[in-house]
Design brief:
alpha+beta; five-stranded mixed sheet; single chain; 48% helix; 555 residues
């Protein structure tokens, strides 16, 4: 039976002589020799036929069925008869099989290079060892560096952004083809000169999407003066937020006083609502399920839905459905289905409490509740002075039940003994900033009320807040026709911060206009920056720039 030539590298150049399998050290040794009668001189490139001598080369090749393969190759030396050639004796080359002085076939080198680009040095060496292609870490890195990843085509729409080699110290530039969402190149710094040089070497870029860094704007102007620059819309909103935060910080004492007053009013409103609601004692008495021991907990909507799912699961199981099919049908975890099927009795949402240490003190708690004390910690301290031996958990659970019976919102945290709901939490400047800049439809009624009351309380801030909200809406909806009007309003607003922000937009007016009129954004570029960070962490931050660039472009 002949060995299939499909497993051999380039059968047209090599002739098979023998195949030997070593059993002690699992390895396949293939003896081969060159099949061409002549060879070309590597210096003068003339064909020579006179053989000088032979010698043997041992070359690694791709494994067979997980067993390493070595080629034992007989190669000839030739005389060069060209009197003008400096080389008198040369060795024949087999460029389709192995490189000069190579110890691995080209196809084995390609496979190891691909593994190294995906897994890195240490990971690539470990994976090659598992795949019966053993190689050292240093050799993997050397093979990766032999690759030439040059830019083959110039993108029409280019995304430019910076990335941190060492955060706060060294930065580079990433270039992305936004039409194909592919990384084109990686630059070692973020200066205007480097970007301009790259653009001059790769003419043809028509649109450049960038952040608002002046270095990238200057580099784009110098390297591709005819290209349209597009400012990133996310960075425009970020610059707006920074300007608005400066304005809020300038009025920080005034805003803090106003927010404190709003919180006090909300607390007063809540207290009046508590007085108007039915008392907890009346609710307890009017409930028909009330016992002397403990009030019965009524079934909630979640209890009813859970009982319905348990019933559905048990019915499907009785029809012959498997647990996996039930889980997929009811969108539940298989463990949850298994637990439901083990229940022999339907779920009873009404749970009657046992006698507890709190029973003798409940009249006192109800009296204190009606007096306006809704703080569980304070009530627990008062009960301890009356020789209450239980823990604070029992008191907290009972107070929580009283709140539910009285129709009060759940307590989230304490602030000087007053129960504070999420809507009443004191707002910071940054929280207030996002209340102003977020989309109006995404704000809750309480958040919108805070903004409206703030505008009504401070007419000087009303103009600034209106400018910020209009600019955010203009960027999100890309209303480019409103840009000149907004810039004029900002100049006439009297706010130095917004006047400075408007002048910075005027200096970059072309890129701002393009950002509001063209669909291109730097979002895909930011995504590739995140991928670059992942590769950096994969190599523990120790990879040099060339290896990082190779791995990023290979991906």
């Amino acid at each position: 039976m002949k060995t299939p030539t499909i497993f051999l590298p380039d059968p047209s150049e090599l002739q098979l002589e023998a195949v030997q399998i070593e059993e002690n050290v699992p390895q396949v040794i293939i003896t081969m020799m060159t099949a061409q009668p002549a060879a070309k001189c590597p210096v003068c490139h003339e064909i020579m036929q006179r053989v000088h001598s032979h010698y043997w080369r041992t070359i690694g090749d791709l494994p067979w069925a997980g067993i390493p393969v070595a080629l034992h190759l007989q190669v000839r030396r030739f005389f060069c008869r060209n009197p003008l050639c400096k080389r008198k004796i040369f060795t024949e080359r087999i460029p389709t099989v192995v490189a000069p002085w190579g110890r691995r076939t080209i196809r084995l080198t390609d496979a190891q290079q691909a593994i190294g680009l995906v897994s890195g040095g240490t990971g690539g060496a470990n994976l090659c060892k598992i795949l019966a292609m053993p190689i050292s870490i240093d050799t993997v890195l050397c093979q990766m560096r032999q690759l030439n990843r040059a830019v083959t085509s110039t993108p029409r729409v280019l995304g430019v952004d910076d990335w941190a080699q060492r955060k706060g110290q060294t930065y580079g530039t990433i270039l992305v083809d936004l039409e194909r969402s592919e990384v084109i190149d990686l630059l070692p710094d973020r200066t205007a000169e480097t970007l301009a040089q790259w653009l001059c070497e790769h003419p043809g870029v028509e649109i450049i999407s960038r952040d608002r860094a002046e270095a990238y704007a200057e580099g784009a102007r110098n390297g591709a003066p005819s290209a349209t620059q597009v400012a990133d819309r996310w960075h425009l909103l970020k610059n707006l937020a920074e300007a608005l935060l400066k304005v809020l910080e300038q009025h920080h004492p005034l805003l803090e006083r106003t927010l404190r007053n709003l919180q006090t009013e909300a607390t007063t409103t809540l207290s009046s609502a508590v007085v108007e609601t039915p008392s907890a004692q009346e609710a307890m008495v009017s409930t028909p399920e009330t016992t002397d021991d403990c009030p019965v907990v009524q079934p909630t909507a979640a209890d009813k839905r859970r009982a319905q799912r348990i019933e559905q699961a048990q019915q499907l199981y009785q029809r012959g459905w498997s647990q996996r099919a039930i889980a997929a049908h009811l969108n539940l975890d298989s463990k949850t289905v298994r637990r439901y099927l083990r229940l022999t009795m339907p779920l009873s949402p009404q749970r009657r409490g046992r006698r507890s240490l709190l029973d003798p003190f409940k009249p006192y708690l109800l009296e204190r509740w009606q007096a306006g004390c809704h703080n569980a910690a304070q009530l627990f301290r008062e009960l301890q002075s009356q020789n209450f031996q239980g823990r604070s958990t029992i008191v907290r659970h009972y107070v929580k039940e009283l709140r539910q019976r009285s129709g009060l919102p759940p307590r989230t945290r304490h602030s000087q003994g007053v129960a504070v709901t999420p809507a009443q939490r004191p707002s910071t400047l940054r929280t207030l900033l996002w209340y102003i800049l977020r989309k109006p439809e995404s704000l809750s009624d309480d958040e919108q009320l805070i903004v409206n009351q703030l505008i009504a309380a401070h007419p000087k801030l009303a103009v600034t807040i209106s400018l910020a909200q209009d600019f955010a809406a203009m960027v999100r909806q890309r209303q480019v026709e409103q840009l000149p009007t907004w810039l004029h309003r900002a100049e006439q607003s009297g706010s130095k911060t917004f006047q400075t922000f408007a002048r910075s937009l005027l200096r970059d007016y072309g890129a701002i206009y393009a950002a509001l009129s063209l669909p291109w954004s730097n979002g895909p570029t930011e995504g590739h920056v995140n991928r670059l960070k992942c590769l950096k962490r994969q190599m523990y931050g120790r990879a040099k720039f060339d290896l990082l660039r190779l791995r990023l472009l290979a991906g």
